[in-house]
């Protein structure tokens, strides 16, 4: 799809999402805060010149800098605003007609001795229509006057940003008698004249007067809410001011969720090297596969012409060598990464803002839950949290999280709090799964650690390189990686206590509990000592992994938000495995987990606890306060769900293969969504097919899921090659990986130095 000039789209086209959210065609609009507006406009002079409608726009614009400004002062005179803290000057100059007075003011700015405004916003016409009673002579004079002003504006456009605001339509039924001559037909004639005359002498020049025509589209939808039929309602003029801010500031501030008017970022040195690597991998794979095919064809026997029988080949097709498998994987990965880059770094595809409605979140949720129920199958084993069940759990949680992200449901607090529980449940499974493995297997070898770390981090490391993003940006992977290392350290440190050892002496169970208590104390201390936490993760090279925007606060916040849930997962695994070993629970097919009465009581308590948490989360009024309580109480709903899912024998014996399939690629789905399903690093939505929102979601979702599945396969294939079981070979590979990351740090330092 031809992307085109997003600035042009921002100034000329778009539509409303709901009643108040304006969506420019093809790009995303950032909502500027006061501090951001000040940083962008520091030491700038902005001039608004025109009639009462331009005065409205002036007030909305300065309220973005200082919301306390009141609309007072001489309505038919000049109004001056200054923010001394940022040295910003914004002037409104009362020139209600395009005449010699306006021309003289604009001409004064073109003189070299006068300081020119950095931004000029001009526009007028309705006064000319009103004063001259809508006569054709007035329109002719308007054309003459704007023709004389146009070259001056075009001259100013060489050094300043100049915008001509077209006239908004009016709501004729609401106009007072003195304004009845201002008709939409007349306004269209004046607008047509302005568009035709402006830039007529500089059509091929980059220095052009930018025609601000989008205000017309906004007014067409909202002018009915006008107080007098002429002036726009406040929400509409605020939208116009925000568009103006995006046009000027996006190229300066470069907000992630403001893709309009942002130039494509240049390729970094690391990105160029990655491109070369993937290109060489593709070429290498093609050469090796061609050589193998030719060798195979030469050795393959032809049909025996005399007997008409086909002889067996002299040799069987050769098995793919390790090098060929490696190049094949990197070849596929290179093509996939090209798609990632085109989707979220190039201007090839459109991006749009999210817009939340209850229907956009809850209808897809109901749909996927119904689908999941239709794919019910029997499990291979009936243990608590068996493999099929945990895959199913991960799958439906991931689908809910994806719907949450694409629908923009984070703005609705009850949904946000429930999604926080789903993220906590992932971490709970991390604690439960890794504790169970180390406790039962007793395998603390380097191979196991490297396999887990590779599978968790491979995709994220590649994306950090290709998409030029810090490691901490993909916050969930650093989170599960650090927690895995904490679990490993807790259990691997002397004395190593595993199930086999503890079965010989019950006292060893107290040793494990002591380790878990020590871990809990450390977590508690770090969660209430931000300084100590930041010192640990501010040491180089750890700081390169955990810093975001120059500090580790975001990492501390993410870690703190679910600080206890991994511990809860480990403790649950310890208690469950102890009960299982002593045969205190029944895990036969169709059998309830406990005796009839105990099962019923626990099931009742679980249902009540589950609903109580949901009621509390739904009644949350303040996100900060609820986030403070979340780490301590999220485990209630998680444990309640596990008991509801596992106490009844029948429920424990079945699972949804639909959800389990997604569960197996849940990590890839979570990471890939950042760039090829959502857009602008999750802030917006990727648009492959403009104009058809539902069809677009279907197509982009299909591609997204296929890509995630393929990356999962590539990661598994590469894990077998990069992390071999042989210790001596593994050591060599680890040295190579250490060299790779050292080179990456070196190139990153060079990149930072050149950018500064």
UniProtKB/TrEMBL annotation:
<feature type="transmembrane region" description="Helical">
    <location>
        <begin position="355"/>
        <end position="375"/>
    </location>
</feature>
<feature type="transmembrane region" description="Helical">
    <location>
        <begin position="506"/>
        <end position="526"/>
    </location>
</feature>
<feature type="transmembrane region" description="Helical">
    <location>
        <begin position="396"/>
        <end position="417"/>
    </location>
</feature>
<keyword id="KW-0808">Transferase</keyword>
<keyword id="KW-0333">Golgi apparatus</keyword>
<comment type="similarity">
    <text>Belongs to the PC-esterase family. CASD1 subfamily.</text>
</comment>
<protein>
    <recommendedName>
        <fullName>N-acetylneuraminate (7)9-O-acetyltransferase</fullName>
        <ecNumber>2.3.1.45</ecNumber>
    </recommendedName>
</protein>
<dbReference type="GO" id="GO:0005975">
    <property type="term" value="P:carbohydrate metabolic process"/>
</dbReference>
<feature type="transmembrane region" description="Helical">
    <location>
        <begin position="269"/>
        <end position="291"/>
    </location>
</feature>
<feature type="transmembrane region" description="Helical">
    <location>
        <begin position="685"/>
        <end position="709"/>
    </location>
</feature>
<dbReference type="Pfam" id="PF24536">
    <property type="entry name" value="NXPE4_C"/>
</dbReference>
<keyword id="KW-0472">Membrane</keyword>
<feature type="transmembrane region" description="Helical">
    <location>
        <begin position="659"/>
        <end position="679"/>
    </location>
</feature>
<feature type="transmembrane region" description="Helical">
    <location>
        <begin position="561"/>
        <end position="579"/>
    </location>
</feature>
<keyword id="KW-0812">Transmembrane</keyword>
<feature type="domain" description="NXPE C-terminal">
    <location>
        <begin position="22"/>
        <end position="92"/>
    </location>
</feature>
<feature type="transmembrane region" description="Helical">
    <location>
        <begin position="452"/>
        <end position="468"/>
    </location>
</feature>
<feature type="transmembrane region" description="Helical">
    <location>
        <begin position="423"/>
        <end position="440"/>
    </location>
</feature>
<dbReference type="InterPro" id="IPR012419">
    <property type="entry name" value="Cas1_AcylTrans_dom"/>
</dbReference>
<keyword id="KW-1133">Transmembrane helix</keyword>
<dbReference type="InterPro" id="IPR057106">
    <property type="entry name" value="NXPE4_C"/>
</dbReference>
<feature type="transmembrane region" description="Helical">
    <location>
        <begin position="730"/>
        <end position="750"/>
    </location>
</feature>
<feature type="domain" description="Cas1p 10 TM acyl transferase">
    <location>
        <begin position="253"/>
        <end position="734"/>
    </location>
</feature>
<keyword id="KW-0012">Acyltransferase</keyword>
<keyword id="KW-0325">Glycoprotein</keyword>
<feature type="transmembrane region" description="Helical">
    <location>
        <begin position="600"/>
        <end position="617"/>
    </location>
</feature>
<dbReference type="Pfam" id="PF07779">
    <property type="entry name" value="Cas1_AcylT"/>
</dbReference>
<dbReference type="GO" id="GO:0000139">
    <property type="term" value="C:Golgi membrane"/>
</dbReference>
<dbReference type="GO" id="GO:0047186">
    <property type="term" value="F:N-acetylneuraminate 9-O-acetyltransferase activity"/>
</dbReference>
<feature type="transmembrane region" description="Helical">
    <location>
        <begin position="474"/>
        <end position="494"/>
    </location>
</feature>
